[in-house]
Amino acid sequence: GPPAAAAQLPLEPESPNYFRSEADNGEPGGFSPVAAGGGVAEEARTQRAREVLVAASDVAGRNARLAFEAELSGSWPRAAEMLQSRLLLDEVRCQPKEWIAYAKFCARARGRQAAAEEALRQAVQLIAEGVAPNSREDEQEVDMMLACLLLDRGRHDEAIRVFREWHLKAPSDPTFKFFLGLGLFLADEEPVEALRLLNAVGGGRLEPYTACLEKLLDYGLPSLAFTFLDQCKVLPDTAQNEPSLVLIDARASCLDRDFSAAVTRAEQLTLSKGGEKATGSAAQEAWRLQGECFFQLGDMDRALQSLNQAMTFERKFEEPGFFIRLGSVLVAKKRWKQAREAYLKSIQFLPTAEAWSGVAYAEYRSDELQMCYEALNEANLLDNERSDVWALLALVHLRLENWTQASHGFKQCLKLKADCEDLLLEVAAEFSRGPPGQSRQPDFAESAARRAMELRDSGQAHAALAEALVVQDKALEAADEARAAMERLVDQPEPRKGIYDRALRWCDELGRHDLVQALHDLQRSCDQKAKRSP
Fold first, then answer.
1. Fewest beta carbons within 10 Å, which of 119, 163, 313, 373?
2. 0.70 exceeded by pTM
3. Alpha carbon 147 to its chain's center
4. How far apart are CA 301 and CA 291, in angstroms?
5. Range 253-269 average pLDDT
6. What does the DSSP assignment read for 191-235?
7. Closest CA to 162 of 174, 178, 179
8. Positive or negative, the Cα torsion across 329, 335, 336, 337?
9. Span 267-282, average pLDDT
């Protein structure tokens, strides 16, 4: 069993009661200043509480951070929810730049173009009404992005009208030449004028073109960048291999979710030539981009190699998102200590619930339960609506035999519509074993398994449900779930044999020889299918 000093952990920061002692709130396992080391610990905890309350008062900042974390982890709906909540705040909703930022998010998220257009029109209205101070650059930014978005949505005439107005104001500006020329090209109107404008953008230089293409990527519109690069034929063939354009093309593919194409393009900058390592900022960014793409493709070996290569350059990364991604890759590789260090490096630049959750997961896998618990509390203080954090808290409390707190953590996890399949399966396994009424909570185990099954109809989820049912004396139902598990574990012989053996025992104890025979037949059938599969 765990040491007595570590067995009782304080309440998770679900509410302000977290900062009160057991005597104050009556909860078992509440914080005790004496047990934690007297006045010094109490003072430190009070300071921490004060910092948390100050941070909580910055709702706009919190929502922006949570949106960043959600987007980084691919939770686009939650990111949108956080940004929408931010736009409801008085100090935010009157700022055109905030609506432009939300429009860029909607474009990046794909499938939210209508919302992006609505946000940009709100920015246009705010500028027209003069609600908040704004500059000519703000007006230009919102007009250019709105027109580009309309162009991307096939509404060429509206877009061209805006581009032409700005071009007439500043005929020599390469940005307006580029966008008006691109609009005319796509509308298939005045093709001679379109090419004249596009050819006049650079004045013999590549930089003005790359600046305009960068704007399109910033707007979240890679398809327009592809149109120029692949169809306009303005740039000479030799320019297509310039590092700046290669990187733009790779980034556009990544933004378009075509990760394989992005890797292929980035390799032009990362593959060594003549045995020499590629150098320069473009090569470093190409390595970072490759790491991201390999992560999205599930190739963690090459993702780790690419991210490590990106860190060998003279310029050092200071973006928290880079180290969060590195931590995720290291977790997938089960390199727990290195993953912990990567997440902590991210926290140095920006404390996030995502990074603290990563630290906690790495510590849990290393059996460092106290460190895991402390990291989970940090994560919960920054965002107490993460189901993975609550699931991991439940697991920690189960390991430390804090049954009440384990139940509380799991209930919170379910309340948040848990989306952490692997942790749910572990919770189900933990609640299915142990002494009845203590760690064994079969109803919790069943709920965890069924929620995991909702997320993915896997063999592991059916096996976990079978285990939860059998400890509730529902052996027949458990046998049905065991068969369902076996059918989904054809290509995983070891876990399939494990649930097969247990189901045989259940059916034999019931005296159901017909079910025993059915399990034998199913196992033989699965073995035959496994042999035939490539």
1. 313
2. yes
3. 30
4. 10
5. 96
6. HHHHHHHHHTTTTT-SHHHHHHHHHHHHTT-HHHHHHIIIII--S
7. 179
8. negative
9. 73
The DSSP line for 375-425 is HHHHHHHH-TT-HHHHHHHHHHHHHTT-HHHHHHHHHHHHHTT---HHHHH
79 to each of 160, 256, 441, how far by Cα in Å? 32, 18, 34
CA gap 470, 477 in Å, rounded: 8
* Residue found by looking up tokens 């703000």 in the block: 138
pLDDT in tens, 385-397: 999 999 999 999 9
3-state secondary structure (DSSP) of residue 85: helix
Q: ∠ at Cα 367 (46, 28), nearest 5°? A: 45
Q: 284: number of CA atoms within 13 Å, CB side?
A: 12
The CA–CA distances, whole Å, from 468 to 212, 465, 472 equal 59, 5, 7
> Mean pLDDT, to the nearest integer, of 40-60?
60
For residue 384, with 0-12 CB atoms within 10 Å meaning exposed, 13-18 middle and 19 or more buried, which class applies? Answer: middle
Beta carbons of 421 and 449 less than 8 angstroms apart = no
> What is the three-state SS of 336-388?
HHHHHHHHHHHHHHCCCHHHHHHHHHHHHHCCCHHHHHHHHHHHHHHCCCCHH
